[in-house]
Amino acid sequence: MKPIRDRRSRPLTGRVSVPGDKSISHRALMLAALAAGTSTIEGLNDGADVTATATAVTALGAGVLQPDRSARVEVEGWGDRGPVEPVATIDAGNSGTTARILLGLLASVDGHCSVTGDESLKRRPMLRVVAPLRAMGAVIDGRAHGDLLPLAVRGGELEGRDHELAVASAQVKSALLLAGMHASGSTAVTEPGDSRDHTENMLRASGVDIEVTDRTVRIAGGQRPVAMHWDVPGDISSAMYLIVAAVLLRGSDLMIDGVGLNPKRSTALDVLKRMGADLAIDPTSEASGEPRGEIHVRSSTLQACTVDASDVPRLIDEIPVLAIAASQAEGDSAFHGVGELRTKESDRLAAIVEGLRGLGGEAEAAGDTLFVRGPRKLSGGIVDSGGDHRMAMAFAVAGLVSSASIRINGWSCVQTSFPTFLDLLGTAQAGGR
User: Fold this and answer.
1) Average pLDDT in the 85-113 region?
2) Entry pTM
C-alpha cells in the first residue's frame, strides 16, 4: 500500500459519515432471515464480514436482494418453513461474529450443516459457544473436540437451559438467544460483566419477548421476529480511527454524523474524554432501540489513563487504536484485563506491543495488562497487519503522526469492515463533504 506517512500533517475537518455498524448489520440480516415476509435494511455495512453473513443466510433459504450494490438490502425470510439444509459448506471468511452467532441458528436446522473460515478464523476458539449449544441438544463436532473450525452441526430439537458464561461475550450470548427461540421451554444467559446488547435491543424491536434482569437475559421458546425495516447507524468502532486521528492531528475540527451511540459500545469515547480529548456528543435520534447522533472532535493534548478490566468487554475492538492514542499521551497508561485480545483475528496484544516498539514507542504486556508509555515520537518502519483489519487501521492512525513513512503489510484485510477507510480519511483531510 502507499505509505500512510504521505497523508500526514493535514488535519481532519468538515463533516463525514462512517459505514453502517458491523455488529448491527450481522444481526439485522439474521433476524430478517428468521422472519416471515420481507424486511428492508438501510445502511448495511459493505465489508466482507457482513457479506459472509448475507451469503450464509442465503444458503439457509433466505432471499437477499441488494439492487445496484447500494446500502439498502431486501431480505425475504424463511419464517414458518424454517431454514433449509445447505448444500455446501458455509464459509464465514474472517468473521468470528458470523461463525459464532450463526451456530445458534444452525443448532435448530433439521439436517447437517458445516461451517469453515479463513486461516485466521480457523485458529479462533469456538468451544465457548459450541459447549452450551451441545448442552441444549445440538450435535457439533470439529477439530480440537469442537473448539476449532471447520465444524459440523447436526441440528434439531433443542431444550432451553440456563447458561452462565465464564467470559462476557455478545457473540456467545446472541447465539444462545437465537437457539433459545427455537428451543422448548426458556433459555437464560448470565454474563459476569456487561457486553454489547444489540441482540436484546433488536429482538425487542422485532416483537420477540425477552426479559433482562441485571446481567441475565431470558427468552421463551417458540418465538420468531417479525419482518422489519432496519436502519443501521454508523459504526462507532470504525469512527474511532477518525476520532483518534483528529485528536492527534493539530488543527483538526471534525464532525461525524449518524454514529451509533449505544452506551455499551461507546465506552471508548468515555476513555478518550478521561484522557482529555475535546469531544462533544449529541444524541439526535433512536431507531430499533439503538441511539445515534453526532460526534464533534477537535485536536487535543492527551493525558495517560487507566482502563479497568470491567470496561474491556465494551471496548475490546477499540483497544488497538486507544493504544496509539496512549503512545502520544503524557504519562503511563494501563489497560487491564485485555487477555481476550490474544484470541481475536490476530494476537492483538502481542501485535500492539511489537508494532509500537518497532516504531519507537514504548509498550509491554504483563499477564492480561497492556502498558503504554507516552508521549513517544514515532518513527517510520514496516508494520505487519497479521491479516487483522483493526491492527491495520490502528497503525494507519500511527502513520499520520509519525516522523517518517509507515508501510502496513496486508492492508487488504481492511476490506472486512471498512473498505473505504482511506477514501474517507482523504475526504476529511480535504475538508469533508
Assistant:
1) 95
2) 0.93
Assess whether 332 carries a catalytic annotation: no
Q: How far apart are CA 277 and CA 297, in angstroms?
A: 8
Q: How far out from the chain centre does Cα 241 lie?
A: 14
Which residue in the list 317, 347, 384, 388 is annotated as catalytic? Answer: 317
Question: Chain-wide mean pLDDT for the chain?
Answer: 93
What pLDDT, on a 0 to 100 scale, did the predictor assign at position 287?
81
* pLDDT reported for residue 6: 46
CA of residue 165 relative to chain centroid, distance: 19
Q: Measured between alpha carbons, how far is 410 from 238 in angstroms, rounded to an integer?
A: 18
- What's the Cα-to-Cα distance from 280 to each of 253, 284, 410, rounded to whole Å? 11, 13, 34
Query: What is the distance, to the nearest Å, from the Cα of residue 174 to the centroid of all Cα atoms in its chain?
Result: 13
Question: What number of other Cβ atoms are within 10 A of residue 411's Cβ?
Answer: 18
73: nearest Cα among 10, 123, 20? 20
SS3 75: strand
Answer whether 360's CB lies under 8 Å from 409's CB.
Answer: no
Torsion from C-alpha of 221, 44, 390, 132, nearest 10 degrees: 10
pLDDT tens, position by position, 332-352: 999 999 998 888 877 899 999
pLDDT of residue 409: 93
| Cell numbers found for residue 389 | 483489519
**Are 244 and 397 within 8 A, CB to CB?**
yes
Neighbours of 210 (CB within 10 A): 19
* C-alpha neighbours within 13 Å on the C-beta side of residue 140: 31
Residue 214: partners with Cβ closer than 8 Å, 6 or more residues away: none
Residues recorded for the chain: 433
Q: DSSP class of residue 426?
A: H
Q: CB of 170 within 8 A of CB of 195?
A: yes
pLDDT at res. 206: 96
